[in-house]
Amino acid sequence: MQRILTLTLSLALLVAFAPAQANGPRDPYKHFFNDSWGNFKEELAQAKQQGKQGILIFFEMDECPFCHYMKQNVLNQPEVQAYYRKHFLNFSVDIEGDVEITDFKGRQMKQKDFAFKEFRVRATPVIAFFDLNGKLVQRYTGKTNGVQEFMLLGKYVANGMYKKMPFIRYKREQRSAENDY
After folding, report:
1. 26-59 confidence digits (pLDDT tens)
2. How far apart are CA 28 and CA 56, in angstroms?
3. Is 4 inside any structural domain?
4. In terms of residue numbers, what domain contains 161?
5. CATH number at residue 128
6. Does the pLDDT of residue 6 top 80, yes or no?
7. Residue 39 domain-assigned?
């Protein structure tokens, strides 16, 4: 009888806490970043076919504390993952990597050459958004101030506001609008 009671209590606790864990932080490599074979020309075609607004590339390196901050505090949040997966294909590029990739124009090169020679990435993270033609439309260097700013950045690009104003102005206007309520 003791065993049945213990098992029932354990099962009840597991069921009670399962929803809380489902909404908690999740591995960004499974839930934020999309799988890729490293062919960004093909990824553009996929983004178009899936009705995305573009591609996000998160340029990072292993020893970068700001990259780790983003992955442990922002990119691991379910609301961030859902929004970005809905609007973009999201990929990670190691700026020190020797893995061969294909750029948006179909040229093969190492990740580190793609990062440095193509986009002058030196400091990390760099969050780069590309339109469906492979054109860089927004670049954000460094970590964001958290989930809210990262979400604003995604909305800024997804809604095409980058065509009308700099991100800093958009962010200021959005915060001002929130304070009006």
Report:
1. 999 999 999 998 999 999 999 999 999 999 999 9
2. 14
3. no
4. 26-179
5. 3.40.30.10
6. no
7. yes
139-151 b/e (C-beta count within 10 Å ≥ 16 → b): bbeebbeeeebbb
1: in domain: no
pLDDT score of 177: 81
**Beta 136-141 vs 100-102: how paired, if at all?**
unpaired
| DSSP secondary structure of 80-120 | HHHHHHHHEEEEEEETT---EEE-TTS-EEEHHHIIIIIH-
Over residues 121-149, mean pLDDT? 97
Amino acid type, 50: Q
Provide the pLDDT for residue 132.
96
> What is the pTM for the complete model shown?
0.84
Distance from C-alpha of 172 to C-alpha of 50, rounded to nearest angstrom: 32
Asked if residue 88 is part of any domain, the answer here is yes
